[in-house]
Write a structure and sequence with these properties.
Length: 956
Amino acid sequence: MTKILAIDDNPDNLIVIKAVLSTAFTDLTVITATTGKKGIELAESENPDVILLDLIMPDMDGYETCRILKTDKELSRIPVIILTALQTDAASRIKALKLGAELFLCKPVDETELTAQVTSMLRIKRSEDKLRLDNENLEEIIKQRTEELQKALILHEITEETLKASEERFRLIVKNSSDILVVINPDGIQRYISPAVERITGYSPNDLIQKSIADVIHPDDLPEVMRVWAEGIGNPGRLLKVQYRHIHKTKQWVYVEAVGQSFVDEPSVQGVITSVRDISERLEAERAKQRAATIQQIQYNIAHAVVTADSQNELFEVVRKELSQLMDTRNFILAQYDEQTGMLSAPFERDERGENPPDWSAENSLTGHVIKQKRSLFLKKADIKALADAGEIVLRGIRAEVWIGVPIKAGDKVTAAIVIQSYDNPDAYDKNSVEILEIIANQLNIYAERKRAEENEMKLSKALIQSPVSIVITDTNGIIEYVNPKICEITGYFSEELLGQNPRIFQSGVTSQETYQQLWKTILSGGEWRGEFQNKKKTGELFWESVSITPIIDLSGRISNFLAVKEDITERKKNIEELEKAKHRAEAGDRLKSAFLENISHEIRTPLNGILGFAPLVIDPTVTDDEKQEYLEILNTSGKRLIQTVTDYMDISLLVSGNMKIKPKQFAIVKLINELESAFKQRCQRKNLLLEIQLSEIQKNIILNTDHELLRKILFHLFDNAVKFTEKGGIKLECYSMPGIIRFTVKDTGIGINQQALPNIFDKFYQEETKLTRSHEGSGLGLTIVDELLKLLGGEILVESEKLKGSLFTISIPYESNSIEAVVKDKHENLSNTMKTRTIVIAEDDEDNFYFLKVSLRSQNFEILRAKNGQDAVDIIKTNKNVCLVLMDLKMPDLDGYEATKQIKAFRSDLPIIAVTAYAMSGDEEKTLEAGCDGYLPKPFSREQILDMIHQYITN
């Protein structure tokens, strides 16, 4: 009956241990104790085969209990296995092993591992018990045999006759003795051998009589035997003893022990009488004990190396050297298996031949055979050949005389294998070698799993510390036991301020009590609660958190703690709020754009309809002259409206894309104001509106240095809006000058603007009235263009308005104070009155555009030459020295206007060239000036504009 004593203060653990071991062992009694003192008492009375000892117990812990057990002579023989769930560090293991414990296992212990380790301890215990019993029996037998021999010698000394009388009886004793009795003469020749020799050596007495003892003793043992022999011959009466190997008839060797005495001085004997006993079993038991002790020490050394080794290579070098105490490890390989690739590699290898590749396929290899079968293999050379002949493996390199492969497992999977082999000794290993390697492989796997667990714990610890979200762990009452650095970073509390506190320290009072009640109800029932809190930092600042709280379940299935994972979502909340606002703005913008696109269609199609509708009527012979004049005015108005619409779209496009450029130049304010007055005077008259312009004499002489065209556009749009939205009353323009600033105000008595709409009137695509039924024409881009243009000029605009009472727009732009006499020339002066006949070249490939230019200039005193492309223009000017000016279209076939200008300027640098183009994009004017043009006039232009430009360059 096998007895196992389990000492643990937790009754549940005792029940589990008893259940596991009772299932694994049929003939087993498990004795239990809940204290160390009671365990020692049971160990003394029950003499168990193995003791399972918990480390953490009240009154007397496992260390003290183990120490007492191992200091008792009788109890020290019982193997002790330490079981603990807490102290798993290297120092604890080493302390327990130093006190005498055979093994150190961590809870929860794997059932298979516990069963295997208990089996190993039982095997060692039984071997030690058998060895001790054999020693005791041997000592008793030797004592008895010595007494008998002494008595026999005494009788022999008394009388030869008595010896002869007892000879028959002595012969019977010798014949039936289990030991071999041998009489050897002084020359070492065996004169007599008892029948027991055949049982022990296989030889009959006749086979060995007259043979020298040197013929039956192992050559390695012979020197020691001869030394003892010589000592015995020289010292009659002294009892001598020696161990050696005796030849067996099977050519094997038998371990024996000879006890004898020299009787060379006795005439009747004249030799040495010895008793030879078979001690093979005793030596095997001793070797088993020694091997067990060695294995235990090896395990201890390997356990220490697992903790202290700096690398895997260093660890396995320790394993190899430790195992070399028991077997040949000259050829030692750790082979790791990659299940994904099916390849083996050797991170550690010691091989005499050094012919192994760095990695090789597990398929059809010996090591792969171990991996596949998940069990150890012990193969001789012939076994290896048989596997190769059967096609199960492919021979690689030199075949070993003997080969062992032992798997290292992680759960059910084989992750690696230990391989040892001998190239020259077929008897280098035995089955004990396999068992030892399996113990070491199991030990390595245990420590590997433990190390992986420690690494995972370290990773988990680092993950908690370095987590980008807040981690809080509380007990079941909600008291904080752990916080990670992130929560301290977010809330401003130190960890010492939070430990021992309740999470309500973060509450802001915003969250309802019903929410907290639902939270506790969920997590206490084992569920996960998710939600959001608006919590409070140490400074009182509010912030939003997304929170997930889950219960932590212990091994008994009870809730031991609560884990809260919290993420600061304050910025996310803000972003969502901004996105919502942006969404509403975008939706409003989409509505505005839809209406705007509809207005675009209206603003383009309406004037086009006027142009296309009335153009045929002008040439209709049935139409009267008065009607034609009316139609022509409509055509002119529609054309201007269409041009203005296209210009607005082009301007806003350039402004939005950032391609609008400033081209500053000096000009008189009075000239700009006169242009505006001329442009809007008739429109005001048609609507019976009073147009009032206030400009002092000083202001009339102010010369501005800014972009004339952009400022003209700004004032034009303000005037246009004022006239468009005013039905009675008037429009007033005033100018104010001060150091560094000039200010214009445009005031009207029109419909005004709602206060709610005022903040948006400068937004792109915004119109206060967006419906198709709106009462006023226009794209709604005017004020947007004004605002953007002012930003380019470094100015600003302010607006005051009241619905149905009118609006006041004030613009301010910077300028350098410079007051001079402004000279305004009559731009309508007829060139023909001041100039003699001059030649002008019109480089234009479009027939209609050329015809318009020709008609515009026919009342002037010009000779007009036409060039249909750039090359024609170059050729004409080369052959005609009277050309005084060129109107150069930029887009023409063969040679464009840019290149033609460059070529003309190369031989007529003084010839004025005016660029005429329909590509009125930002940067085009600079491009034309770089090409050599002197002026720039974008299409469409009026007869008045072209005459102004020609007058400027010809008179100059």
